[in-house]
């Protein structure tokens, strides 16, 4: 395949054409951001810019990401109008009954009515997208997210040996189950005096965590880090023994993959595509309900005390397993197969290079 360029909206002063360290070319298109890094829908307002970029760069295929991105929908719409091949990766799950989901699904059905292929991050996500957009399942592939395993090495010495540390890394919003988290933490702290929590992330529900910490006098046992940079995720994860995810809906959940790759035991709600992600011995499931979540965390704490006697739970064993499962090279090969099928090409250059 040919080269790859990225088109996205401007971020603050980051606008115009930039090159990242690997030489990848990025177009930061000026646009009004209205909510959650989504730009104001313009329908035809961005067409002159898209057209100029697509012609200048001699683009053959446009791959959009995110069913809630107006920029993505416009790019696919205009690319099809110019006779180019198109593909979409959908990263989220949506319902069918609430007003927001109904409107989003109508928009998705319109945009994908003439698309060449769709990629979803799990089989559950694929089923959801096929139903929402009335797609032919044969035109939808399930390709998971990936991690750079070499950057997520376990470090058992980084954890506090005097206690069990539970790590939470999440956007602090309702969808991530903040109500469950707020209800669970005090109960676990009462049951296990040697357990502490490290919570990274920011969002509108942070105030609930702060109020919970104040009302239960848990300032010395619940640490709120605020926003955590991507480059610092490993530093936070390796301080813990257990990773806790309380999401109410997830198409994939990259957080539990990163945590397992760092050697942590995982506790998560059984929602969406999460059951597809990790082998059963790495994970403790709970229904998204307070009592069951407390029991799942309790089982993980007991397991953490005895994991030295279980070779399959050795941090390096977990790391090696997850690193192989979610390799970017594997995702690249599978994605290129989709591109080749869209372009009606038979020779798979990347696949052949890997075999050599």
UniProtKB/TrEMBL annotation:
One of its GO terms (cellular component) is glycosylphosphatidylinositol-N-acetylglucosaminyltransferase (GPI-GnT) complex. The keyword Glycosyltransferase applies. Coiled coil: none annotated. Residues 9-98 form the PIGA GPI anchor biosynthesis domain. It is an enzyme of class 2 (transferase). SUPFAM superfamilies: UDP-Glycosyltransferase/glycogen phosphorylase. Its EC number is 2.4.1.198. One of its GO terms (molecular function) is phosphatidylinositol N-acetylglucosaminyltransferase activity. The keyword Glycosyltransferase applies. Pfam families: Glyco_trans_1_4, PIGA. It comes from the Eukaryota. One of its GO terms (biological process) is GPI anchor biosynthetic process. InterPro entries: PIGA_GPI_anchor_biosynthesis. Keywords: Glycosyltransferase, Transferase. This is Phosphatidylinositol N-acetylglucosaminyltransferase GPI3 subunit.
């Amino acid at each position: 395949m040919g080269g790859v360029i990225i088109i996205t909206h401007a971020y603050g002063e980051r606008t115009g054409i930039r090159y990242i360290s690997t030489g990848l070319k990025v177009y930061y298109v000026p646009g009004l951001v209205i909510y959650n890094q989504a730009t104001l829908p313009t329908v035809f307002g961005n067409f002159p810019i898209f057209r100029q970029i697509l012609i200048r760069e001699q683009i053959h295929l446009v791959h959009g990401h995110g069913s809630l991105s107006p920029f993505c929908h416009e790019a696919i719409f205009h690319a099809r109008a110019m006779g180019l091949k198109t593909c979409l990766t959908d990263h989220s799950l949506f319902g069918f009954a609430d007003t927001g989901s109904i409107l989003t699904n109508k928009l998705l059905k319109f945009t994908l009515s003439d698309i060449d292929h769709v990629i979803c991050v799990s089989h559950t996500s694929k089923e959801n997208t096929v139903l929402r957009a009335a797609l032919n399942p044969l035109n939808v592939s399930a390709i998971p997210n990936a991690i750079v395993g070499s950057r997520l090495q376990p470090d058992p010495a980084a954890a506090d040996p005097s206690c069990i540390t539970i790590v939470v890394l999440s956007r602090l919003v309702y969808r991530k189950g903040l109500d469950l988290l707020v209800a669970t933490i005090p109960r676990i702290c009462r049951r296990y005096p040697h357990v502490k929590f490290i919570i990274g992330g920011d969002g509108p529900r942070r105030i609930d965590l702060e109020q919970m910490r104040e009302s239960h006098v848990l300032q010395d046992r619940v640490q709120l880090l605020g926003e955590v940079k991507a480059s610092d995720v490993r530093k936070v994860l390796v301080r813990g023994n257990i990773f806790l995810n309380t999401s109410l809906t997830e198409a994939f959940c990259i957080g539990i993959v990163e945590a397992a790759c760092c050697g942590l035991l995982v506790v998560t709600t059984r929602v969406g595509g999460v059951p597809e992600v990790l082998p059963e011995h790495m994970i403790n499931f709970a229904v998204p309900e307070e009592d069951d979540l407390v029991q799942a965390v309790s089982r993980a704490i007991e397991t953490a005390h005895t994991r030295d006697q279980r070779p399959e739970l050795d941090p390096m064993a977990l790391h090696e397993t997850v690193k192989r499962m979610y390799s970017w090279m594997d995702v690249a090969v599978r994605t290129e197969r989709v591109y080749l099928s869209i372009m009606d090409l038979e020779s798979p250059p990347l696949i052949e290079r890997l075999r050599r």
